[in-house]
Amino acid sequence: MSKVCTIAWVHGTVQGVGFRYSTQREALQLGLTGYARNMDDGSVEVVACGDAEQVEKLVAWLKAGGPRSARVEKVLTEPHQPGREYMNFGSRY
């Protein structure tokens, strides 16, 4: 199993709809670490670290629209090298 980290920026109606909480719940079920946080431009930034296959599952979930209350317009992703190791998956403000 190869460990990877991916950073994603999710655009659309993704703030104020439980997006961070739902992303956190999904990531924890997949055994991932990292965080989801609201950005000033209305997007949500997601950092997901763990087994490559599980990270891809989370990215696919994000691209599929996340929680029902959200309206995802686009998801941009790139590999990420965090400056620290995450112990869990958190929701940030």
Average pLDDT: 94
Poorly predicted runs are none
Q: Count the helices. How many? A: 2
Q: What kind of sheet is the major sheet?
A: 5 strands, mixed
Order of helices and strands: EHEEHEE
Structural class: alpha+beta
Strand order of the largest sheet: 4-1-3-2-5
Strand content: 35-45%
* Tertiary shape: globular
Distance between the termini: 31 Å
Q: What is the number of beta strands?
A: 5
Radius of gyration: 12 Å
Helix content: 10-25%
EC number: 3.6.1.7
Catalytic activity: an acyl phosphate + H2O = a carboxylate + phosphate + H(+)
Pfam family, one: Acylphosphatase
Enzyme class: hydrolase
What does this structure look like?
This protein is an alpha+beta fold and 93 residues long. It has helices spanning 19-29, 52-63, and strands at 3-13, 33-38, 44-51, 71-79, 89-92. The protein is built from two helices and five strands; from the N terminus they run E-H-E-E-H-E-E. The longest helix has 12 residues, at 52-63. The termini are far apart. This is Acylphosphatase. Keywords: Hydrolase. It is an enzyme of class 3 (hydrolase). Residues 5-93 form the Acylphosphatase-like domain.
Write the layout of secondary structure elements.
Blueprint: E1 3-13, H1 19-29, E2 33-38, E3 44-51, H2 52-63, E4 71-79, E5 89-92
Parallel strand pairs: 2-5
Antiparallel strand pairs: 1-3, 1-4, 2-3
Question: Can you give keywords for this protein?
Answer:
single chain; 2 helices; hydrolase
Concise overview:
The protein has 93 residues and is α+β, with helices and mostly antiparallel strands. 25% of the residues lie in helices and 41% in strands.
